[in-house]
Known about the structure:
Blueprint: E1 2-5, H1 13-19, E2 25-28, E3 46-49, H2 57-65, E4 70-73, H3 83-89, E5 92-94, H4 101-116, H5 119-127, E6 145-149, H6 153-164, E7 168-172, H7 178-182, E8 186-187, H8 190-196, E9 199-202, H9 216-221, E10 227-230, H10 239-247, E11 253-256, H11 278-283, E12 289-291, H12 300-319, E13 326-328
Parallel strand pairs: 1-2, 1-3, 3-4, 4-5, 6-7, 6-9, 7-8, 9-10, 10-11, 11-12
Antiparallel strand pairs: 5-13
Helix pairs in contact: 4-6
Domain D-isomer specific 2-hydroxyacid dehydrogenase catalytic: 8-326
Protein name: 2-hydroxyacid dehydrogenase
Family: Belongs to the D-isomer specific 2-hydroxyacid dehydrogenase family.
Amino acid sequence: MEILAFGVQADEKPMLEAAFAGLHEVRCLDVFLTEDTAPIAAGYEVVSSSVNADLNGRVLRILAAGGTRMIAQRSTGFNNIDLDVARQLGLTVSRVSYYSPYSVAEFAWTLAMAVNRRIVRAATRTRDFDFRLDGLMGRDMHARTVGVLGTGKIGEAFTRIAHGHGMHLLGWDVVRNPACVELGMKYVDKEELFASSDLISLHVPLLGSTRHLVDAAALRLMKDDAILVNSSRGGLIDTEALVAELRAGRFTGVGLDVYEAEAGIFFMDRSLETVEDDTLARLVTFPHVVVTSHQAYYTTDAVSQIIDTTAANVADYLAGRRSENTLVPDPPQAP
């Protein structure tokens, strides 16, 4: 059987082909799965999608009409998939429920330090042989307070890094993580976390209840010299509200690996095109803001796990099995 994989990065292609070697052929495309590209999948029973695929009801109906019966998404998040329509169409949908949490946690800490210590500005200057220190002053993280929203596997890994730097730990989640409590984390409500933290890092999934978790009200609660980092999902932050606060001269720095309107922009070369997204264009002009291209997960360790799990999900589908990675039909219940 031949599997069609959308949105495959150049570094990812040989790993994807190796994972299915001797079992199935894989046709890798660098285009993303959208309403415009979905007809390409006609005749493919199994399709693999990437995190920025747009799997709305129209796309799913095009896939189903073309003979697709299984969608293997190569990511943990699945807010881009209309699962209700997938159920109606009888499609099997899977995701990768777990991969190295250290990849994202380490990158989030890197973003925090990059904006704190003005690394991008300093590196740009030195390329022009400008070695002044003006405007490059940062501050110690030791003994300051970090607020971690979402203390699952990635949030825990980030908490351990912050703990290693001697920070006071505040957390917010629907369920307390005993490992974080053991490290000395104090769980508080969102309002206290926003108001008390010097560094805030987001590690919650994008759900209806978490969309714009960091809204205008939350931003107003934050310290004027706070650092905000988002390596989870762009929709967690109201970007328009964030830009308004940045224009007012607030915050020491903001590190964003994700953006709420990134679909159709991230993972692509737009350098020769006119920027039509005014909010993103304004965001990247602030000298104390660093925006990267949804790359926090992008390590050999994490991508290998993602691809191996995707291959296992396809094998489960062909064998009629369900696992914790199966989104549709509903995953098996724990005994």
